[in-house]
Amino acid sequence: NAGVTQTPKFRVLKTGQSMTLLCAQDMNHEYMYWYRQDPGMGLRLIHYSVGEGTTAKGEVPDGYNVSRLKKQNFLLGLESAAPSQTSVYFCASSYSLAGGPLDEQYFGPGTRLTVT
Amino acid sequence: GENVEQHPSTLSVQEGDSAVIKCTYSDSASNYFPWYKQELGKGPQLIIDIRSNVGEKKDQRIAVTLNKTAKHFSLHITETQPEDSAVYFCAASITPGGGADGLTFGKGTHLIIQP
Prior knowledge:
Chain A is 0% helix and 49% strand. By secondary structure, chain A is mainly β. The chains are: A mainly beta, B mainly beta.
């Protein structure tokens, strides 16, 4: 049971380049999330998914797209990278909306992205 | 939307002393309040959470208190140890697990345990 994994761990892009960050979870979770973490800003939600084939915008969605073609995978895309997207990106997943001990959000180890 | 304020941004305590981190939230509909610990180079990990139907929860050296009237909640760590050094985040959500809108996080507290 690997939990939540993220690929790649580090990446450097030039302005205008594109890339896709991959998140995978093996816990059969319905909900998946992408956050970005910037110094002094905490974690901010970019996009999330409530199930396979569904996605929705979070607090800071501009410049990003996502897809959830398979339940276990959640992809975050940057079509034209900008220096403002330099950040650490975290993926997370949770079981469901229901109450109880299964609602914990599990985070991946993060992807450090630098856009020059 | 929800807004979560966290204080202090940095907290330095002597090993063995207690540490308290405080958060306030704005949306009275929020009913789930988790605390995450993030060690250097790792993702956040849940250490304790509390739901709106209780005022306090304890787990060994860690406790969380919630005051829904005042809309604030706090993390208490007693008998601090070097391994408690990390960044701690509070968060709030209307739905357990974050649900449709995910979690709204505070900006974090860097806890430093001095030997």
